[in-house]
Design a protein that fits this description.
3-stranded antiparallel β-sheet; aminoacyl-trna synthetase; alpha/beta; zinc ion binding; protein biosynthesis; Glu/Gln-tRNA-synth; Rossmann fold; binds glutamic acid; 306 residues
Length: 306
């Protein structure tokens, strides 16, 4: 397998001269932003700005059936109200489907992907894909597209969670980049856009930790530069459940923005910031930012977030 493929498409990454840190916040509009999303936004913003880096925003909206009506405009209003100002225009993935198709073509040329006709029914609950369609040479039309993985340990050093390793062949198998219904999978879109936006550092929730080795492998197959990762502990409510869209976490109440911002900073175990206009509060949060204070495992919200 040729795993050192060079850039062959017409899409080239943004260059950020003199900036060693390009961070980003990449919410999916599958529900309104909640307090857990705010913690991620604050941490990614403060990490980038405290290192004199740039901070970008990308709306991850390729999975059209899962888009929750109104959540995109809620995300944009939140960014505005909390004074998160990205350093480049916001990218909406659904406007860039051609770039993902171009990357799939690159991978096809190098024989790194194949068409898969297995339905969910055939696969059952088996979490590890056995490579059933790998050598069938099926036509790509109307089939899922899977990326080949190899039997090797891939490791990375997470800035908060320490060393993480996985053998993709043994733990997961070849994985889907494009679904049968034509939807571009998150794994593909995230890797391509982080590369094209010139992202160097990703700060996001630990619920995405498992995806990271897949993304590193795909980036490696495409010859992209390696990104640094920091996975934040998940925020747990008083009942011990993680705050998530699936658990119907409450949407951020924009009339409480300063209070919520102050609470998000506390949830990350930072020095408290004074209640003021969000732009002023964010500046203080950046000045006081100390990554070594972030808890590694869980953020307990009882007593912080009411
Ligand atoms: N779009 C993903 C989400 O909202 C986050 C992706 C990422 O940060 O890599 O859960």
């Amino acid at each position: 397998m040729d795993t050192s493929l060079r850039e062959k498409s017409d899409f080239s990454p943004v260059r950020w001269p003199n900036h060693a840190y390009i961070g980003r916040f990449a919410p999916s509009p599958t529900g309104p932003l909640h307090f857990g999303s705010l913690i991620t936004a604050v941490a990614s913003y403060c990490e980038a700005k405290s290192q004199h880096g740039k901070w970008l925003v990308r709306i991850e909206d390729t999975d059209i059936p899962r888009i929750y009506p109104g959540s995109e405009s809620h995300i944009l209003r939140c960014l505005d109200t909390f004074a998160f100002e990205p350093d480049a225009p916001i990218i909406f993935q659904k406007d860039h489907l051609a770039r993902y198709e171009a990357v799939i073509d690159q991978l096809k040329h190098c024989n790194l992907v194949y068409a898969c006709q297995c339905t969910r029914k055939i696969l059952g609950s088996n979490a590890i894909y056995a490579g059933t369609c790998r050598n069938l040479k099926l036509d790509f039309k109307h089939q899922a597209i899977r990326l080949k993985v190899t039997d090797q340990q891939i490791c990375f050093e997470d800035a908060l969670q320490g060393q993480q390793c996985s053998n993709l062949q043994q733990d997961l198998g070849d994985f889907v980049l494009k679904r049968r219904d034509g939807i571009i999978n998150y794994q593909l879109a995230v890797v391509v856009d982080d590369h094209l936006q010139g992202v160097t550092h990703v700060v996001r929730g630990a619920d995405l930790l498992d995806n990271t080795v897949r993304q590193i492998w795909l980036g490696h197959c495409l010859g992209y530069s390696q990104i640094q990762y920091m996975h934040l502990p998940l925020a747990m409510n008083a009942q011990g459940q993680k705050l998530s869209k699936q658990n119907l976490a409450q949407a951020l109440d924009l009339s409480q923005a300063p209070q919520l911002l102050a609470q998000a900073v506390l949830a990350l175990h930072q020095e408290p910031i004074e209640i003021d206009q969000p732009a002023i509060m964010l500046k203080q949060a950046v000045t006081q930012w100390d990554r070594s204070r972030i808890p590694q495992h869980q953020i307990h919200l009882s007593g912080i977030y009411q």
